[in-house]
Design goal:
mainly alpha, 6 helices, single chain, about 200 residues
């Protein structure tokens, strides 16, 4: 009896399963609740268009690094010589002297600038004594203007001391204000000429 009963239950289950009977209707949409569990594969767009092998690729010429003229032009090498750099420094000092004379600057200021001119002339004389630069007109003009600056600075200093004791006869005439003014005017003209020559040399 038990065997028959088991066979009937088994037969009933088979009939139910094979007959397609079961839940009929629509299932609820649960995709949103489980969306976080679904792995996402993001497709990123490329920033650049891939090169098509059929397209013509650009060709670049090789840089002629062995050509020195090309390198000099492209790299824009500093062609300013040390002499020109030194000359530029001197021009600034000479222009200061120009302003000092134009504004009737004090003897102390004049002598300080004159001393700077003399120092630069001595420095360049030693630096370029065995170089071709010593034959330049600008070089000779600097040495000349330095000598004039020294002579005029000495004259102005001496005049302050000796004018009180010397008459305007003979040697005393040299320290008169008229003579000093004339010497300053000559020096100023030479100064203008020297600055122009030096600027043309650059």
């Amino acid at each position: 009896m038990k065997k028959i009963f088991k066979k009937l239950i088994f037969l009933f289950v088979c009939i139910v399963l094979c007959s397609g009977a079961g839940y009929k209707g629509t299932l609820p949409n649960i995709n949103q609740q489980f969306e976080y569990k679904v792995p996402k594969t993001e497709v990123t767009k490329g920033l650049y268009k891939p090169i098509d092998d059929t397209e013509k690729k650009p060709t670049f010429k090789k840089v002629p690094r062995e050509n020195q003229a090309y390198i000099d032009i492209i790299l824009k090498k500093d062609k300013t010589s040390p002499y020109i750099n030194d000359l530029n420094d001197v021009i600034l000092i000479l222009e200061k002297m120009q302003k000092c004379i134009e504004k009737n600057g004090s003897i102390q200021k004049f002598n300080a600038i004159a001393s700077s001119i003399i120092d630069h002339a001595d420095y360049m004389s030693k630096k370029y004594e065995n170089s071709p630069e010593r034959y330049y007109i600008s070089f000779a003009k600097l040495q000349n203007i330095a000598q004039q600056a020294r002579a005029l600075a000495t004259l102005r200093c001496e005049s302050q001391v000796y004018i009180k004791y010397l008459t305007y006869q003979g040697e005393g005439q040299m320290y008169s204000q008229q003579n000093i003014d004339r010497q300053i005017q000559i020096f100023e003209n030479e100064l203008d000429n020297a600055i122009r020559i030096m600027k043309d040399s650059r």
